[in-house]
Amino acid sequence: MARARKTLTSKEASQTPVTPEWTRRLKSWDEIPSWQQDNEYILSGYRQATGSFKGCFESLAYVHNETVNIYSHVIGAAIFLMSPIYTYRALYLRYPLATQADLFVFSTFFYGVSICFFLSATYHIISGHSPKVQSFGNQLDYLGIVILMWGSTIPSIYYGFYCDPRLQKIYWTNVSILATLCIIATLHPRFRHPTLRPYRAAMYAGLGLSAVVFVVHGILLHGWTVQNRRMSVDWMGVMALFNLTGAVIYAARLPERLQPLKYDIYGSSHQVLHVAVVLAGLAHMLGLFRAFEYLHTNGSVCT
After folding, report:
1. N or C: which end of the chain has fewer CB within 10 A?
2. What is the pLDDT of residues 271-285, one digit of tens each?
3. Strand partners for 46
4. Inside any domain, residue 156
């Protein structure tokens, strides 16, 4: 298949006349500039590069191959933004032993996930603007991932090591330092050089593995039964399974690799990844609810 490699600069994009009829005419893979070409198995449904934020946000009103990516995380962000209301009314008020610390760790989780989904949706909205804006949006997307990973571990550490305040502080400090390093690596221009890619990858891997370390440590200290009640390790496993499944499907470019054109608008690997991440967040939320209930019924007595 012949592929066009002509790039559209920010200046050229901004000088192109932007009208609703023109922007809504979807493009094929061969018609878009190289900076928009990411998945060679998605052959149609591309938005025209406009060099205009107005044009990008107008694309919310019609269907293209980023529509599901955008709205899956807009809906996900809305769910987790509203979840604190349920948590406060259905959980916090029912348990007299609940504290401000519970509100803090749940808020860290809910708003961390919401910010991640909001930044992800923003990236997919503005990705058709220009090369420079697309690159910036990609940074926002990765920033959101770091915030989600950090926000998800804070409450797990709190409930998992409720009876080990020293370990709480150690793991909170470690994960916060790793998250800060990942944010610097994501946003600082110096770390965007291709030669530093292995270091960036190592930082992200370190942040991800930090969760494995404190989970395993807790099980070794207190045993599976106790730690599963405190931390809902089984629900964390469900969360990890959703994330891993989505990542594998995304990396394999399935199902669009098998049937090009069929999944250009609905059902592509990136969309599957987005839905899987939302489901992973919901699984982790259910696990945190159970950990909260255990702590404030019969798990708050430390021996």
Report:
1. C
2. 999 999 999 999 999
3. 27
4. yes
